[in-house]
Amino acid sequence: MRLKVNKGLKTQKYACVKIKKMQEALKSFKKYLADNTLKLTQQRLLILKVFLSEGGEMSSEKLLNAVQTIDTAVSRSTVYRTIKHFHHAGIARCTHHSDGSTHYEPSGDHTSHMLCERCGKIIPIRNPYIQCLQQETARQQGFTLYRYTTTFYGLCSECTEALQSAKTKPSG
């Protein structure tokens, strides 16, 4: 006998979790702004909402494009400064890529991904064994684990294939 999953309830649960994360991020951001005598402007609030809604890693430029689809009056400098405020407030994690670019992602989640050092492609890893290994390693050391990020550096399948085909081509 198969059980039917009520997709509506599953979606509601996901929406509630997402709202809770947004509320927690907003609370942290408000505290950071107050501690630094800065104001929560409508533009900063919009940037925060877009950043958290998009989820995953993104460059400041990608965030700018997403924000400007909603409000074209938001400037590049406002987005770039605000994303740095997110980082300092602890609601964004910063990653530096081999191509020199910097990306940001919401903090607080467990993330694992592979990063191609040739083309910069980011491939998320959804593997319960990695999560289990992280938690078990922390437990063995008596470490209380709150969150983690794991990055594997190497070549994606397309770049590996391109390099291998370049090696097998006869030279003139």
From TrEMBL:
UniProt keyword annotation of Metal-binding present = yes
Alphabetic keyword roster: Cytoplasm, DNA-binding, Metal-binding, Repressor, Transcription, Transcription regulation, Zinc
- Chief location category: cytoplasm
The compartments listed are: Cytoplasm
Q: Which InterPro entries match?
A: FUR, Fur_C, WH-like_DNA-bd_sf, WH_DNA-bd_sf
The keyword Protein transport is annotated on this UniProt entry: no
The family annotation for this protein states: Belongs to the Fur family.
PANTHER family found in the cross-reference section: FERRIC UPTAKE REGULATION PROTEIN, ZINC UPTAKE REGULATION PROTEIN
Q: How does it assemble?
A: Homodimer.
- The protein here is known as Ferric uptake regulation protein
Its taxonomic path starts at: Bacteria, Pseudomonadati, Thermodesulfobacteriota, Desulfovibrionia, Desulfovibrionales
